[in-house]
Structures are given as C-alpha cells and as structure tokens.
Design a protein that fits this description.
Strand 17, helix 17 and strand 18 form a beta-alpha-beta unit. The longest helix has 33 residues. This protein has a nine-stranded mixed sheet with strand order 5-6-7-4-3-8-9-10-11, with helices on both faces. A six-stranded parallel sheet has the order 16-13-12-17-18-19, sandwiched between helices. A two-stranded antiparallel ribbon has the order 1-2. Helix 11 crosses helix 13, helix 12 packs parallel to helix 15 and helix 20 runs parallel beside helix 22. It has three domains: 253 residues, Glycogen Phosphorylase B (Rossmann fold), CATH 3.40.50; 241 residues, Glycogen Phosphorylase B (Rossmann fold), CATH 3.40.50.2000; 61 residues. The chain is elongated. The protein has 22 helices and 19 strands. The chain is 42% helix and 13% strand. It is of the alpha/beta class and 702 residues long.
C-alpha cells in the first residue's frame, strides 16, 4: 500500500498536533482545469494566479494548468516550450496529429507553472459528436444557441481526451485533476464516464443558480430550503447549465467550495454537502521595512488628494487633512455587491456628521464599471484648473524665491509689500476667478449612457447626496476600472486602495470576497458581511475583528434596516477615530495578512487532494477519517492594549484626525505583533480527528 510520509507537527505556539500524511508528490501528477487559466474573466483567475507559486514550489514539474487558448493571451503571457514529462509530450503530440491545436508552455507569472492550452475553434467540428457523448454520459443536452455552453463542452471534451492520453502513458504515476466551476465540469463528467484512472476534485466558487437568484433581489438565504430548483433554473433558461454543474458535483470524488456560507448554499442548490472548504488566499509579500505600507499609504493618499482638489475646485471648503477616503469596487451588481445598503448608510452618516457639526469630511468612490460615452467635461476641466493653479503657484514661487535670494545677498530684509509686483497679483487674481463655478461638483466622472435608469445615480438623486457645501459626505462614481494611464485618476487599483482609509463591501452575495482580502493584505481596514466567505472566515479566526480593522455587518440574521443602521454606526465610529488610532488599526490589519497567505491556506487544498486519492485509489492510498486543517483553539486574540477597538472608547462626537489620545499610550505594537505571530499555525499541517470524535461525511469546519 502506497502511503505518504508520516510527520509529527508542532505549532508555533508549542501546542502538539495530530500526525498527518504528506503527499508523495514525486509519484503524482496534478492538473488544475479552469476556463480562467491565462484568461482573466473574474475571481477564479486571481485564485489560480496567486496560488500558482505555492503549488509549483511544492509539486515542481508535476504541476500543470489546463485552460483555453486565446492568441492575445498566448503572445503576452505564455512562453512556449517543449514538455519535459514524457506522458504530457505524447498526449500533446497525439492530439495535434488528430487535428487539434494544443499549446504547451510556461505561464509568465510568479512560480512559472506549466500550462496546456486548447484552441476551442479548431476543434469545433467535433461539437455534434461530443454533444452525443455528453448525452450518453449524463443525459444532459445543450441547446444550439447557447454558444458559451457549447464552448465549455468543447473545452471539457478536449480536457477528457488529454487526460486519457496522459493516463495511458503515466508510467505508474497517479493523476489528480481539480476542476474549477461548471465551465470545466464537462471534462470531469466525461473522464468519470470513461472510467479514467484519475482522482477528481470539483470546486465551485459560487453556484450558478445562486448568482441568478440573488441578482433578482430574492430573499435568498432565508428561503434556501424552499426553492424549486428545477423550476427556477428553467425559468431563467439555464437548466442545461445547472445540470452540467450538478452532474460535475456528483461525479467528483471530492467536492469543495471556498467558504462556509457557500457550502450551505451548495448543499441546497446542488444537493451535495462539500467535503472540504478551501478558503481563497493571496500571495503575500512582506516589506523589509516594517512600516513601509504606512509610507505607501501616505504617498498614494496625497495623489488621491490631488484628484479631489481638482474635482471639487470652487467648492474646496473642507480640510483635506481631515478628509477620509472610502471606496467600494467590483462588478456592477447593485444589490449583490451591497451598493444599495451602502448608499443608504452614507445618507444616514451624512446626517450624523452634520448633526454633530463634525469637521471630518468623507469622500466616497464607487469604482464599478458601467456603460459610458466618455469622460465628463466638467471633471476634465477640474483637473485642468488644478494643474493650471499648480503651475501658477510654482511660477510665482520661483520669482518670489529669486527676489528673496537677491535681497539676502545684498544683506537686506526684503519689503514683503514689494516682493510681488502688480503682474503677479493680477495672475493670482485671475487664477482665483478661474476656480469659481456655478454648478455643484459632479457625482460621476463619466457621461453615463443610461443616466436616468442607472441604479447608483437614481439612488443618489433619491437620497440627495449632490456634493453640496453643507454635505459632510461627498460621492464620486467612477464607472471604469482604474488605470495608471487615465487622464483623470492616474493610479492602478493597488495604488488607489493603499491611498484610501477604508474599503466598504457590504455584499449580499459574495462566496468569498477578494476585495476586502486585498485590503487586508495592504493594511487597509474594510467592511464586509457575514454573508461573504471572507467575513465568515475572519469571524472564525479573529476574536475581535473590529479591533483588527475588519467590520462585519450582519446581513443574515437581522432586517435590512437594522443592517443599514449597523453599517452606519461602523462608518460613524471610523470617522471618530484619531489619526493615531487609524495608524494602530492599520498595523493590526496588515498583520492579518499571514492568515490569507497561500502558504497557510494551501493546506486545505492538500487535504482535499489526499482525500480524493484515498477515494479514487483506496487500495493504494489509505486515509483514516480526518478533518480538514483544524482551527480549534486558534484565534487572533482581542488586543490587550487600550482601546480594545479603536472606536470603542471615544467621545460621542468626531474629533480632529490629528488629535492624539493619551489612552493609546499603553499600546505596545511589538508585543501585539509577537503574540499574533505565535497564534498563526505552521503551514502545511493537517489535523486528525481525536478518538471518539468521529465526523460524518462532509461534516467539516475549516
């Protein structure tokens, strides 16, 4: 019986661990199949790209990614090379000889993993035959007009063909294939129907029907057990896609999903409880200088301030040093992403700040791509006016400096009344007059095509947040992805996030939530919900998430109005923080990045792989009933320093952002950081269930 090496693992905190099995990777081949390999569509691309280095480091030349071929992506992201592995080389050659176009190379990302790419178009002539194969395998038919589903069938058929060729020449090596989402699922279905000797894993990052139902503003989570699944899928004309997804789930040896909340959803939507929850991580890079991320925050905040100076020219009657930058970003799904509740909370926050006569101003950015004609002329003019004023100020400064220098050389104190001549005063007056505007600063940076029906703009009109002088909350909709080449806001997304103070993502449907995770890794506090995978993960791992800059809104067990009030209080409490408290909170937030590192979260995938081997090849791999990596007794503790939550011990009205609180003096960052470091478990360890605590099938807690 082939077994992995047995390891005795001890945690960093010195607590004993259960013995675990280490995979004999030298005797295995690992394939990950996804439509988003080298092809950025959504979040799965981020999962695979960021995980590649950790997986490649562990598996070496036995790790391969399978995806679709697109010429542009191939030219810009992939370096072609010849396969070293004989089984892979034979499979590629065989398929190419039969008229398929299969490309092999290294994906030029961190870790440089091998990729196998299939040209879908070159094999489309087999579509009718492959439709018949799918019907024979699981009685699922695909309509002619659904081009996406037809492409996925071609992709899956090519994948199954390739895996058959590999297993025919694997020389005793066992094959593990992990399929991501329904787009790759047909490859799994056909592989199992043809009884290929491979261990299969199917991972759903979000159920197909769940997305559709939540987009329709249905009370999804309170009616999970009441939906007529077939009827709902049929009414939305996705029944065949749903059947492909469900068949993939039930054909797989091991079924995984990315969060506990999605596991609950999948059990009801797909009728199988996930075997393992595999949380999504990121490739975390630590700076050599401990507080470098704080310096980057200051640098990029200054660039956002420059944009705000231009956008609000003529109405810049608020102090930018007492201004907080908040943002929400992602796909334009108004309800799913929580933009509806966020806008309502901003209206209530504006009322609270005005009622308490706060000198804090909040500028909120909505980075959500929508259909536009072009940049808003008034917005472009604002940036031009700002640049003109900057140039005038520098010109006058140079003349002033030269006259001052000459006077000092003569040993004189210059007459300040004469150091600026009449022309200089005239130029400055003209500059001041140019900043006057008759209209309010625009709430959007672009001309929207559907201005009258746009959900965000319609809500802004209803709640009356028009960037008036009296408003303490200002709103800017930027309906385009950020780019460093933009003439308006020339910043990449990462730079923009680092420059903001708070990311707000009160999503109703968010299987994982990469946006708040990215904020955490960059040391920026964020708002999430207990309906997002990220929020549930943090609730489980952090004793006091708020103290670490993770504000979790309850959108599952209370009414929408109560959730909105809770979000409003989170935002109001954040506005009351002093500068020092925000710095303390950012330090704590950044320390949570270790929790989201693939070097820590990769062990969940390792568990799923060993479990699928034990089910696919029970005579060669043995695995006693185990749980996924245990988190028992593991939580980031509540910080012992004062205040336990930066907003928890403040006065009832906002204070100046540069006020220092004496009560923060007991904060000892080095002690906190060391304690948090010791509470992280060592990477790549699995927990075995103690005797007497047998788990039922699928009964796992991550």
């Amino acid at each position: 019986m082939l077994r992995g090496r047995s390891l005795s693992v001890t945690s960093l905190s010195g607590l004993p661990r259960w013995e675990v099995e280490e995979l004999p990777v030298e005797d295995l081949l690992l394939f990950e199949v996804a439509w988003e390999v080298t092809n950025k569509v959504g979040g799965i691309y981020t999962v695979i790209q960021t995980k590649a280095k950790t997986t490649a480091d562990e598996w070496g030349d036995n790790y391969f990614l399978i995806g679709p071929y697109f010429e542009h992506n191939m030219k810009t992201q992939v370096e072609r090379c010849e396969p070293i592995n004989d089984a892979i080389r034979r499979a590629v050659d065989t398929m190419n000889k039969h008229g398929c176009q299969v490309y092999f190379g290294r994906w030029l990302i961190e870790g440089s993993p091998y990729v196998v790419l299939f040209d879908i178009g070159s094999s489309a002539w087999n579509l009718d035959r492959w439709k018949g194969d799918l019907w024979e395998a699981c009685s699922v038919g695909i309509p002619y007009h659904d081009r996406e589903a037809n492409d996925m069938l071609i992709f899956g058929s090519l994948t199954a063909w390739f895996l058959k060729e590999v297993t025919d020449h694997a020389d005793g090596k066992h094959v593990i294939a992990q399929f991501h989402e329904w787009q790759a699922g047909t490859g799994l279905i056909l592989s199992r129907a043809r009884k290929l000797p491979i261990a299969t894993i199917f991972t759903t990052h979000a159920t197909l029907l769940g997305r559709y139902l939540c987009a329709a503003n249905i009370d999804f989570y309170n009616h999970l057990d009441k939906f007529d699944i077939d009827k709902e899928a049929g009414e939305r004309q996705i029944y065949h896609r749903y059947c492909m997804e469900r068949a993939s789930v039930h054909c797989a040896h091991v079924f995984t999903t990315v969060s506990e909340i999605t596991a609950i959803e999948a059990e009801h939507m797909l009728k199988r409880k996930p075997d393992v929850v595999t949380p999504n991580g990121l490739s975390v890079k630590k700076f050599s200088a401990v507080h470098e991320f704080q310096n980057l925050h200051a640098t990029y905040k200054a660039r956002i301030q420059d944009f705000v100076r231009g956008h609000f020219y003529g109405h810049l009657d608020f102090d930018l040093e007492k201004t907080l930058f908040l943002f929400i970003a992602g796909r334009y799904e108004f309800s799913n992403k929580g933009a509806d509740i966020f806008l309502e909370a901003l209206s209530r926050l504006n009322f609270l700040l005005r009622m308490h006569k706060s000198d804090v101003t909040v500028v909120v950015f909505f980075i959500m791509p929508a259909k536009t004609n072009n940049f808003n002329v008034e917005t472009l003019k604002g940036q031009a006016v700002r640049k003109q004023l900057w140039d005038i100020a520098h010109s006058v400064k140079e003349k002033f400096g030269k006259k001052l220098y000459d006077a000092l050389l003569r040993g004189e104190i210059p007459d300040m009344n004469n150091i600026l001549d009449r022309d200089d005063v005239t130029v400055m007056k003209r500059a001041i007059f140019s900043t006057q505007r008759q209209s309010l600063p625009p709430v959007t940076t672009h001309n929207m095509i559907d201005d009258s029906t746009d959900p965000i703009l319609s809500t802004i009109r209803r709640i009356g947040l028009f960037n008036n002088r009296t408003d303490r909350v200002k709103v800017i909709l930027h309906p385009e992805f950020l780019s460093s080449t933009s003439p308006l806001l020339p910043m990449d997304y990462e730079e923009f996030v680092r420059g903001c103070h708070l990311g707000v993502f009160p999503s109703y449907y968010e299987p994982w939530g990469y946006t708040p995770a990215e904020c955490t890794v960059m040391g920026i506090p964020s708002v999430t919900t207990n309906l997002s995978g990220f929020g549930c993960f943090m609730q489980e791992h952090v004793a006091d998430p708020t103290a670490y800059g993770i504000y979790i809104v309850d959108r599952r067990f209370q009414s929408p109005d109560d959730s909105c009030n809770q979000l409003t209080q989170f935002l109001y409490g954040f506005c009351k923080q002093s500068r020092r408290q925000r710095i303390i909170q950012r330090n704590r937030t950044e320390r949570l990045s270790d929790l989201l590192d693939w070097r820590y979260l990769g062990r969940y995938y390792q568990h799923a792989r060993y479990l699928t081997l034990s089910r696919a090849f029970p005579d060669k791999f043995h695995m006693e009933p185990t749980s996924p990596p245990t988190t028992e007794g593991f939580k980031y503790p509540r910080p012992s320093s004062v205040p336990p939550s930066p907003s928890g011990s403040q006065v009832s009205s906002p204070q100046s952002s540069d006020v220092e609180d004496e009560e923060d003096e007991r904060y000892n960052e080095e002690e906190e950081a060391e304690r948090d470091r010791l509470n992280i478990k060592s990477p790549w360890s699995l927990g075995r269930v103690p005797r007497g605590k047998k788990k039922l099938h699928g009964e796992y807690k991550n």
